Every structure is written in structure tokens, then in C-alpha cells.
User: Fold this.
Amino acid sequence: VTSFDMIELIERKRDGGALGDAELHWIIAEYTAERIPDYQMAALLMAVFLKGFNERELAAWTDAMLHSGEILSFPDVTARKVDKHSTGGVGDKVSIALAPMVAACGVAVPMISGRGLGHTGGTLDKLESIPGFRVQLGPDEFEDILTDHGMVLAGQSHAIAPADRLIYALRDATGTVPSIPLIASSIMSKKLAEGIDALVLDVKVGSGAFMKHEAAARRLAETMIRIGKSRDTTVVALLTDMNQPLGREVGNANEIAESIEVLRGGGPADLVEVTMALAAEMLLLGGVASDRSEAKAKLRDAIDSGTAAERFRDVVRSHGGDPGVVADPGLLAAPDHVHEVVAPATGYVTRCDALDIGAAGVRLGAGRARKEDPVDPAVGITLLAKYGDQVEEGDPLARVGYNDPDRLERALPLLERAWEIGDEAPQRRPLIIGEVR
Amino acid sequence: VTSFDMIELIERKRDGGALGDAELHWIIAEYTAERIPDYQMAALLMAVFLKGFNERELAAWTDAMLHSGEILSFPDVTARKVDKHSTGGVGDKVSIALAPMVAACGVAVPMISGRGLGHTGGTLDKLESIPGFRVQLGPDEFEDILTDHGMVLAGQSHAIAPADRLIYALRDATGTVPSIPLIASSIMSKKLAEGIDALVLDVKVGSGAFMKHEAAARRLAETMIRIGKSRDTTVVALLTDMNQPLGREVGNANEIAESIEVLRGGGPADLVEVTMALAAEMLLLGGVASDRSEAKAKLRDAIDSGTAAERFRDVVRSHGGDPGVVADPGLLAAPDHVHEVVAPATGYVTRCDALDIGAAGVRLGAGRARKEDPVDPAVGITLLAKYGDQVEEGDPLARVGYNDPDRLERALPLLERAWEIGDEAPQRRPLIIGEVR
Assistant:
């Protein structure tokens, strides 16, 4: 194996030069084997943050992270395997209804999700609010559930992309997280390790998203699509609004209940619209529909016939969870107390801020400020008035379910500033801002 | 003591923002106390490398490094204390004759020098070629020699600027060495800790120098002058040529012999010119001459009267060295063998490259590739033809003194390419390129 001089590689990237494929693979392999010290990797990551990667470097870096661990393959699953990944938002419970809807239509969904951190929630935390539901599966269990039900909803195994896990932890400690090439390669190395045929990305844009502006969101989407191309994996991205939370529920158990509503044909219009749009792309990529209207008809049929809800119930049972929650969401944890946030004036809601509401959720205990914090599945926020809604002074804007009055106290200032009431109806905003493919 | 969030500080510098004085002092103190990990410091240093420091940040960073250790003061030394610092070159033995010349004129010179690394030589290595000469002095010994002789030539004590030593080692391992603010603050934190009233800088420019071009050398000089101002220490810089070695000797014992020649009124014209120019600035800053011609007259008198050579002899004795070398440089170590490099053609020397000759010296054993390598005091190169000299084919260009034939073998390819012979006399180049004050 050729060996390189790490200092020379750092200097080249620092001066804006490009690193070769063999050099990038060497860096990832040596760092994963703990033969490159953290301080050299930190200097390189800062240089990459400030000088970037070209397309070839990005493909090689991602490829090296992908090959640092196991790459899943499911020879017994004959259906095409398509996953969906969201860059993270508030009230973003899309995966929970989407996976069974898509699986019910004949596309396999080997979905590996994450936990919430900061103001954004995590699918794993939400699923764990179903009594008994286990997200950490062994490789055989993962494959069995996917083979039996055409879907699985699990946490990342330590065998997948260990280099990404190490590098992410170092980025988190060295101020090198918000870099488009580093984010894109981190996400894609994990997703490509799932053994998928295609991927649909939900790139969130707005105050509650990682990307505050459309231009940066579009660049991130384009970057991930290019990485997918380098590995012959089709990637399609929708850019969706995250200036306010998606749906009406922000929390964990309450988000599962709202997802079950969607699976039963109900649920708020914005959540249904985003879920249908992303699921339709998955059906197209999965080869089970030839156009979007056919895809949406199939998805509606899976809901109306009850097959999507039934699929979810079976999957919950396979994960060790109580399948009774699908018929009776009242079995989910509920908060001890409820507090109402009311409109300070009469008018129209001109702001219902995703970042403030997400951060309030963390203070309530529905999310976590640090990785090691526990999550209280029962607490959360139900939004009663969203952007554009007409309210009268004193009308409830939100119901806040809480268990600890001190936590409510800390959450309230954020909730009180999250809404703005104006005299005139604000301009409508598109929910699906654009698509990149 | 206020505490800061290191990640937030890294992010601010990464995004081009400025750090506050208290923040910079906190970083240096916490890093020196090993409470900030190397990987966070490495990320910050790369961000500083790429985004820079403004004038205020640079002053605070230097001040914090300066205060990380002991700051010398010499209440018993009534003369003004002026030091000279060179950014490093090949054949740069200026300090050795300069310090006794200046001290003999009544200005105190508390000189702390370094060792050679890479193609540049180090004053300490040269001094150690004097039998018995000790460069590592205790604080009392340092003060005693300075008080008794008005000069001292020592290595850096570990008590001085420990933060700089730690940060320099990390920069060396993370590709963050060649940054003007980081170089300037590193040099100045050590020099300001010597308790000096003023400093003369010799900023070398050319192939054998750290700064290859005048513009960068000028920026470095300006940066150090600004740092000096922030601590009420006058700094004057001369930019001097380092495209070819200074003087005729490159090595250790042979450079001491050449320095003694200067002290006795001889020595090559270029070495004498640079030594006189720097020494004259020191006399002006030391308040013992009112203009340059008076300064130079005093310096010439110190040489002609023998007081400069006498001063050096006394200092050598105080450092434990054999004072007899001043009268008889034949007492210094000599190489076992000599090889001649000859002119391949008749014409004019159009290149006598400092970098190649310095690197050849390292291969011979006169310098070190790595910090832990030993130095052979006896080996070296004597230049017989320099830039602009007329030579005939077969004339000797250099005499190479060596002890190990394998090392000579490795040095020769560099020496053979170091000279270029052209048909026409090249244009004269100024030795003193400019001054910054």
C-alpha cells in the first residue's frame, strides 16, 4: 500500500489544490485505523471547509467513507430498494407514514434513520415512543424484517461507515459541520451503504432547517445527486419549506399519532402533500408507476384500502412494538399537563417559526440539546394556528403538553415569540419549493 | 475567570470574524494548560492561516503567548538592550560577530538564538562547534554573563513563551507554519520576553529564505513592527538578499572561523556589509550613536582596536568555551576530506543557489533534516565563486569538507545544480534590498 505525507496533503488542500483518489482513500483508511492523529484530521477538515472539494475529490472521499465499513445487500429482496432522507426539520415525521405507504405499493424501503439533535427531531426517537419498539437491530433481523414486510425502520449499525461516525464527531468538536461537501459526503456514505437502488432527498429550506436559503439547499441537493451519479445511484431531491413546522404536532408520541392519522387517510394537508410528493418519487424510482399521477393513485389506494396502515402495524410488531397503537393511538404516552399559548392580538398569523418551536420542544424535553440527553416521549406541542391562519385575540395558538413545570417555564418565552400576528393576510408560500434531479 | 466556547470561537474565525482580547488570552492559557485539545487548536490555527488576524488580534495573541511564561528583566544592566533577529538563511553567521561589535560599543545584547532546521543553519549549532561552549544557561548565569560582558548568546529557556513552543510544534504537524501572523507572533513573543528595549530584524528574501519574494518579506517585517509598537518596543527591519549564501562559509566550525575573521577586520565583503548595516541600526536604537556614519565609525573602531574580538573571547570563556579559538581558529574542528566542485564551463556565475547549497549542507551533516538529528561541526562548504564572478572551465566553485563519503555522494547532485554559468555578466543585485521601520 502506498503511503503519503499527511502534512503535505494538508498543505495542498490549504493552498486550494486537489487531492488524488489514492490520497483520499489513504487518509480515510489511516484515520479510521487511528494512524492519523485527530489534530491533523482537524486541520485538513478546516482546510476542506474553507477550500472545498471538486467533484472527483468528493466522489472519492464519499467512496472511501462508504468502504470503511459494511455495505448492505439484500439478495432475497427482489423489489427495487429506494430510501428517503430528510436533511432535518421540526415536526418532520414524514418517514413514518411514507415507508409503509411506499412498501405497500411494492417498493422496498430499507430505511436507516437518526436521532434528534438540537431543534430538529429524529425518526428513531419518535418510533421509540411506541411501547416496546426497538430501533437497534442486528444485521439478520434487519434483513428479515425488510424481506418479510418490504420495509424496515432502524438506527445506524456501527458496522456502517465507521469513518463517517469518527469524522462527524471530530467535525462536531472543531467547528467544521456546516460544509456542503462534508455534509453531502456524510449523508451519502451512509445511504449508499444501505444497498439502495435510488434515493429521494427532502432538502428542507427555512428558519427551522439546516439550510436557511434556497440557493444553499439547491447546492447541497446538486452535490448529493453528483455523488449518487458517481456510484450509479439515482438521487432525486425535493426542496420543501421549513419556515414553520410540518403538520400540527411537534414532539414524539404526538407525531406518531399524527402519522397514523395520515396512514388512515387523515392528517394535516401540508404533511400529506409533502409525504405524497416524496412517496410518488419513490414509486417512480422503484419502477412501480410510470408517472406521478399513477404513483399518487396507487399511494391513495394503499391508504384507502388500509394496506399501508396494516403494513405499519406488522412492522411495529416485528420491531417489538405494540401494534395496538395503530388502531388506538390513545395507547401512546400522554403528558400530565396542558398549557395553552394564546394569540396576543386579532389578525393573521404572519410567522409560526420552526426554529423557535423546535427549540421550545427541546426545552420541554421532546428533543435533546446534547447527544446524551434523554427524551420524554409524552411531551410536545400541538399547533392550532399556522402561517396565514386568521385568529382573534385570546384564541389558542398552541397546546403545550408538559410533565415538568420548570421545563414549561423555560419553553414559554420561545413559544411566545414564535408567532407573529399581522393585520393583513400574508402571501401564500409554496410548500414544495423546487426539485433537483 | 470568564470561560468561552472554543467551538464558537473556531466558527467565528472560520467565517472571517475577529476574536476579542479576552477570548485570545483564554485560548492561549487554556491550550497551554492542556484544557483545549490539540484537534480544536489545529482547526483554529488552520482558520487563522486562511482568514488571518487583524492588528488588534495579533497584538493580543502575541501578548498572551509572551505572558504564558517568564519575561526577563535585567535591572543591573544600565545600557539599553537591543537584539537582532534573522528570519533564517544559509551561511547567515551575522550574530556571532555582530553581538560583540555592538556590545563593545556600549549597547547590551541579550541574544537568544535557535538551532538549524532544514536548509537554514542555527547560531546555537555554530557556537557549539567552539570546544566547550555551552548554550543552555540557567537564568542567573544568563544575567551574569550579560551584566559582565554586555552580551550573551544563549538558547531559549523552557520558561520563555511555553505557549509558543506548544503551538509551534502543533503548527509543524498540521501544515500551518508559513502564515505571516503566526510567524510574526511566534518570533515576537520570544523576543519581547527577552526584556529588550528595541529589536533589529534581518528579514531574508530569496531562494534560501523563508520569504521568497520582497512583498511577503515586507509584510512580515511590517507585521512584526506593528506587534513591537503594541508593546512599546521599537522594531526596525532590513530586508537582505538570500538568493545565495552570505559570506563564503556554510557549515558550523568554518562559519565561526569566518566570523572571527570579521571581528579581526577581515571577512568577505557581503558578510561585512550586512553585519555593519544591522549593527549600526542597533547602535542607533541603543542611543550610542546619533547617525549611521557615527555608528559605523564606532563599529570600525571596535574592530580596529581589537575590543570586539576581545569581547567575543571573554564571552566564549564565560560560556565554557575555549577562548583560544579567537586567536587561532585552527583549534576548531576540521573535516577529514575535501572535495572540489568545479566549473563545467567558462563564463560568469549567474546562479549560486542558497537553497541547494543549504540542502547540500544538511546532507553533508552540517544541518539537520529533523529536530532530533545530530550536527557534525567539522563539515561544510567553502564557496570559491559566487554570483557575478568570472570562472574558467575546471576552476573550483567550492571546496566541500566532509567526513562520510556516502554523505558527500548524496550532497553532490545538489551542489552540481546549485551553480549556473552564463556567457554574460549578470546584473548586480543589491545586498540590502530595503528597510522597514
